[in-house]
Amino acid sequence: MNILYFLIGCSVFLALIFLFAFFWAMKNGQNDDTYTPGVRILFDDDIPKEAEK
Amino acid sequence: MDTLDTQKQAEKLKQCYHCGNDCPDQDYHYDEKDFCCIGCQSVYTILSENQLCNYYSYNNTPGTTQDVISSHYDYLDEPKIAASLLDYSDENISIITLYIPSIHCSSCLWLLEHLYKINPSIVNSRIDFLKKQVVISFKHKEFSLRELVKMLGAIGYEPLISLQDVVKEQNKVSDRDIIKKIAVAGFCFGNVMLLSFPEYFGMAAFEQQFKTFFGWLNLIFAIPVVFYSGRDYFISAWKNLTNKVLNLDFPLALGIAVMFIRSFYEILSGSGAGFVDTLCGLVFFLLIGKWVQQRTYHHLSFERDYRSYFPVAVTLISEAGEKPIPMDELQVGDRILIRNNEIIPADTILMKGDAVIDFSFVTGESAPIQKVLGEVVYAGGRQINEAIELEVIKPVSQSYLTSLWNNEIFDEKRKKIDTFSDTVSKYFSVVLLAIAFGSAAFWMFDDSAKAWQAFTAVLIIACPCALALSSPFTLSAVLSIFDKNKFYLKNTAVVEQMAKINTLVFDKTGTITAPEGFRISFEGDLSYEEQCMISSLARNSGHPLSRELVKWMKINEYFTVSEYKEIPGKGIEGIVNRKMVRIGSASFINIKSEKKDSGTVYIQISERYTGYFSFRQGWRKGLKELFSHLGSKLNMHLLSGDQDTEREYLLPAFPWESQMHFSQSPQNKLDYIKALQKKNDKVMMLGDGLNDAGALKQSDLGIAVTDNINNFSPGCDAILDGASFEKLPQFIQQAKDAVKVIHISFSISLVYNVVGLFFAVQGLLSPLFAAILMPLSTVTIISFTSIATHVFARKNKLI
């Protein structure tokens, strides 16, 4: 059963990684604008020239 | 003789391809598309030349109607002014964040992020849609800031540049801090819960070795929760204690502290599992409640003052010529140039030119005022005639207008809103402490260990988590319901304030009048031919009254107009059907008029005065019903800056004649509200312009009514979109219902507390019991408040 010490250590360590990943995302401003990127992704990359005429 | 049918119009009105408005005629036709005005057409031309017509494929008619761009952006070439606006600048690249109010759909987003196609000097542009901001980096050597702003204006996205960039400022204060705290609390809560389960389910003898290990881990997790996430509760409780106030943060902080100490002691001594689980959950839920309450509107500001109304720069006339300078460098004695449609930034003396100044935003009086040379012109007016020269006699910060804001009454600690939870928490804390000490004293004689247990158990179980969550969840639900109905509140406390209102004060112009839909009438005699001539002339002008007139006359036959001339602030003239037609103000026509208001337009055909049109603003939809509905429950007052020409028109809808006052200056309005408050009335003021700013601030609840929420609105507690004006009674009812919901949910959470206390005073509180009771009560409260609020909203027809 001593393996539990190791496993719990692992799980806490993993959880910590996610926590810091979240902090990093916050600091990076990834949660500042939660609306625009969702719209932006729907635009076509380039306009076909024929469509203009 | 010209025939009438030379330009006969198709009866069916076409929609503008750019903005979707009805096209008055087909003059604006380009690329097989119809446009309502030259502005829309020119935007289309620019876009099609740059292969940006995808703009029109994402949405139908994504554009906004083009107003004539009147602003002069010469000041942006001044390095000093430009530097204060730029976020970043090096040798090649400059970055600027611009606030563009007209951003409203995905087409806007697409276009503004493809600006580089119009001008390759724009390196990159990125939109924040909700904040209506665009960050543009550009090569300033090839493309100056002024050219950039002009280009944005040309495609219909004129940025708003003002002295007090409030929207930008408020967005800096982000909620990152509280989210971090929630993340930490949530992380610890999850882990602690996992580690506490073995204890709750019971452990076999051979597993006992883990008990201390889990306990210690729990303690480690509790440390960041208490000292980082929960820190604000201790600070706030301490601050309030030193100010001799007992608010809800005190029992919360006490509960957190006691839980931590008792858990620490139990785990250290091995006598129990502690309450770390409950502790982490408590802090986690509390912070969520706090976060929900901190609702911010990215695109609105409630703190605007004169600085956001004034332009950034003003044109200074010196011996060296005209030069734009920043507003705060304006000094007494400076000579400034104010062009048509510009705002006068300081108290000045008229030195040169013909000044016709519209003070409607400052005084509420809609008739423009003519000034003579040497007369004092107060700040805040808008020149509606040709350019004038003025000499500054008072600095910007001391003008009559700005003094309205700096009025000393506002420096006093003003309208502390007494929320229900503040009131309750005073008694709650006292009762709680009494029970805690009482039970400790009771057990003290019998069993001192039990005394300690009972004492801490009371403080833990009575920790008013559910109580603390009732208000934020109810009120934020109300806020989001109001939000959907275009009624934006500054914060949650405003809802409770609104429920207490018993007196309503309305401003007239702009508040209860509709922005469009004039009631037009004509006095005089006109033949049909003459009517056609007037309509033909008027449709050449972009002036709102001309547009309204054309719409009202509904004439589909036109003459050609030659020698058309428009004199700003006066009128228009031109030769129609070989006759000189002049439409405009009395002074323009050269006649004496008895009427003083600006809503009168005189007609002269071939030097002959033929009559006048009078324009009276219509009331908002459902105004009469609104007045009669609200009047049955609340005291109604009406204050107007205008003269009383409208009195007779208002009386049928507003029968409280003694409570209707005209010719009120901003100071009068403020004093009127003060007088009402002296009688212990709770006053809600609805206004729109700067002239109401003082009254809005003084009132218990100031609501700014606006027809375009991106426009300037004075500092207030709430912003109401004119379209939702008729829902006012529903909003008030909803606020009252919300307070009812809070009362009920307070009672529910008190029941939970009493049940918990029943066990706690006997010293029988087990960690498992606490760990179940706390989240259970929390979930009950959250679901009850949101369901009840929505049920009431449905009843009030708000959703």
What is this structure, in a nutshell?
The complex is a heterodimer of chains A (53) and B (799). Chain A has 53 residues and is an all-alpha fold.
List keywords for this structure.
A: 53 residues, mainly alpha, 2 helices, B: 799 residues, alpha+beta, 7-stranded mixed sheet, 6-stranded antiparallel sheet, 27 helices, 43% helix, elongated, disordered N terminus
**Broad structural category of chain A:** mainly alpha
- Average pLDDT of chain A, rounded to a whole number, is 82
Instruction: List low-confidence stretches of chain A.
Output: none
Total helices of chain A: the number is 2
Beta content of chain B comes to 15-25%
Characterise the protein shown here.
The complex is a heterodimer of chains A (53) and B (799). Chain A is an all-alpha fold. Chain A has one domain (3-52). Chain A has helices at 3-27, 36-40. The longest helix of chain A has 25 residues, at 3-27. Chain B is of the alpha+beta class. Chain B has six domains: 4-58, no CATH class; 74-172, Alpha-Beta Plaits (2-Layer Sandwich); 174-237 and 246-294, no CATH class; 311-344 and 347-393, Calcium-transporting ATPase, cytoplasmic transduction domain A, CATH 2.70.150.10; 479-513 and 621-736, HAD superfamily/HAD-like (Rossmann fold, 3-Layer(aba) Sandwich), CATH 3.40.50; 515-619, Calcium-transporting ATPase, cytoplasmic domain N. In chain B, 43% of the residues lie in helices and 19% in strands. Chain B has a seven-stranded mixed beta sheet with strand order 18-30-29-28-19-26-27, with helices on both faces. Chain B has a six-stranded antiparallel beta sheet with strand order 10-9-11-17-12-15, with no helix packed on it. In chain B, strands 20-25-24-23-22-21 form a six-stranded antiparallel beta sheet. In chain B, α8 (208-229) runs antiparallel to α10 (249-269) and α9 (231-242) crosses α10. Chain B is elongated and about 110 Å long. Chain A binds chain B through residues 1, 4-5, 8, 11-12, 15, 19, 22-23, 26-27, 31-33, 35-36, 39-40, 42-44, 47, 49, 51-52, and chain B through 48, 51-54, 57-58, 106, 109-110, 113, 127-131, 174, 176, 179-180, 183-184, 187, 190-191, 194-195, 206-207, 210, 213, 217.
